[in-house]
Amino acid sequence: MSLVRSVVTIGGFTMASRLLGFLRDILIAAGLGAGLRADAFFVALQLPNLFRRLFAEGAFNAAFVPLFGESRARGGDAGGRDFAEQALAALLFVLVVVVGLFLAGMPYAVLVLAPGFLSQPEKYALAVELSRITFPYLLLISLVSLLSGVLNSLGRFAVVAATQLLFNLCLIAAVLLGGRLAPSMAHALAMAVTVSGILQFVWLILACRRAGYDLSLRLPRLTQPVRRLLALALPAAIGAGATQIALFVNLILASLLPSGAISYLFYADRLNQLPMGVIGVALGTALLPALVREIAAGRVERASELQNRALELGLLLTLPAAAALLSIPFTLIGVLFERGAFGPEATLATGQALVAYAIGLPAFVMMRPLTAGFHARQDTTTPVRIALVAVGTGIAFSLVLMWPLAHVGLALAISISAWLQAALLGRTLLRRGHWRPDARLRARAPRILLSCLAMVAALVLLREALAPLFGQGTAGRALALALLVLAGIAVYGAACLLTGAARIAELRQSFGRRG
Q1: I want to staple 239 with a disulfide (CB 3.0 to 4.6 A). Which of 80, 314, 324, 387 is the partner?
Q2: Of the candidates 294, 358, 371, the residue with the CA atom closest to the CA atom of residue 330
Q3: What is the pLDDT of residues 78-97, one digit of tens each?
Q4: What angle do helix axes 300-327 and 344-359 make, rounded to 10 degrees?
Q5: Three-state helix/strand/coil letters over 352-363
Q6: Predicted confidence band at 428 (pLDDT cuts at 50, 70, 90)?
Q7: Rounded distance, CA 305 to CA 436, Å?
Q8: How far is it, in rounded angstroms, from Cα 218 to Cα 215?
Q9: Element (H, E) at 195
């Protein structure tokens, strides 16, 4: 399957999941607002997610996918299955220990994560209770990550990407039914998080069986393959941990700000995560197995070409998304979230945070294909060193900017850190000769930027023209936003064709099996 087809497959399901996620967030915003219960739930959701990114999406995947590909190349499916079973045993052992320790010490974990809650005993107690409900999700979703690595390496991207839908469907069901089945909406949502992990795990277990990878559970042993996995995963864990520390510090700092700051950042990040997840995650997921194959076969030039096309595709899709978030942030937040307990003041505060996040959106997306260039060569150490520098810079900016800019300063600091990290990753790949921007990428980038400027002008003018429709209730606002989005897409697409930022013939070729 071609890189573009793989990205579209993953991105399509991710888009569906994110749209469901918006429906979920709209319902949560209407039911919980941005107050005490919302802050407590979002801390309970962040806690397992912090460690999920550390254990599953960060360190483990960076080490597992290249080694699994190598095991299959040497020993066929039997070799791949043997390595996956050894990795599963080791991962499960670590997760059981970690989850057990955190469930026992959850009051201390919440105290470290959100010390500002201690001055509000009700919020603190609720956050501890909800975190104990959500934390088993870490174990389940980490096992899901391993199974996803197996299936992605086999080219079965669709079944893995579809897994994301289950999380949002469970939380939507909780919002619609939870008030009658749980002590509160916050409790229902916390329960739904863990239930979604169970469903995702079962879904991928069945998918692996259909793919001929019916993994058996073994006793954990420190075999040579497991030691290699740990040797690669440890540096990646430190790097992922550095990134999570930055988020962790921002959460602590936000808990010291007036009530609602955590929720403003959460809702803004949800909107920013749409293009980041649809484009960035899809690029990284599809590119890594492809780079592993090309490098293993000695096709270095082809690997560099794949990296250039991934970066070009990332710019083509990410720059207009960032431009749209920067040009109409309050319109987007107002239409999507402003109802029920989420009022105009929350819209203003969340929109300001969205602008700060959107500044770093292109860098966040570019980091995925750039990092894949290191991981495909089984180098997990270099991205760690770069991440530590970027994260340290980001934390310093957070401490400086939070006082004059409150929660907006925290979001802006994350964007500054992302740009620094992307720049250092690209510079290192260049210096090592592992990647060099080709003529096509250098020619297309300014044309993409020019097309974005045309789109921004159209959005600003059309927003003013649609102002009366935006004032006509929920249906009118939704219709106006839909027209605005469709017009922006049309203008951007036309501008790309006119400037040569994209060509129809190339896109058609990309969807071919040899594209």
Answers
A1: 387
A2: 358
A3: 888 888 888 888 888 988 99
A4: 150
A5: HHHHHHHHCHHH
A6: very high
A7: 9
A8: 9
A9: helix 185-210
Contacts of 496-502 with C-beta under 8 Å, sequence gap 24+, read 496/316, 496/447, 496/448, 496/451, 498/451, 499/447, 499/450, 499/451, 500/443, 500/444, 500/447, 501/316, 501/444, 501/447, 501/448, 501/450, 501/451, 502/316, 502/444
Give kind and range of the element (H or E) at residue 422.
Answer: helix 407-432
pTM of structure: 0.70
CA distance 441 to 427: 16
Cα distances from 60 to residues 63, 143, 380, 388, 501, in angstroms, run 5, 10, 11, 18, 36
CB 166 within 8 A of CB 199: yes
The whole-angstrom separation of Cα 341 and Cα 203 is 36
Buried/exposed 427-460: b ≥16 CB within 10 Å, e otherwise = ebbeeeebbebbeebeebbebbeebbebbbebbe
d(CA 434, CA 442): 17
d(CA 424, CA 205): 38
- Beta carbons within 8 Å of 424's beta carbon, 6+ residues apart: 386, 389, 390
Place of tokens 């690669």: 232
- Can you read off the two tokens belonging to residue 513? 């099996």
Least confident of 3-17, 371-385, 476-490: 3-17
Cβ pair 37, 185 in contact under 8 A: yes
Residue count of the chain: 515
* Structural tokens at position 268: 């803004």
Tell me which amino acid residue 19 is: L
Structure tokens at 450: 């020019």
The rounded distance, in Å, linking the Cα atoms of 415 and 402 is 14
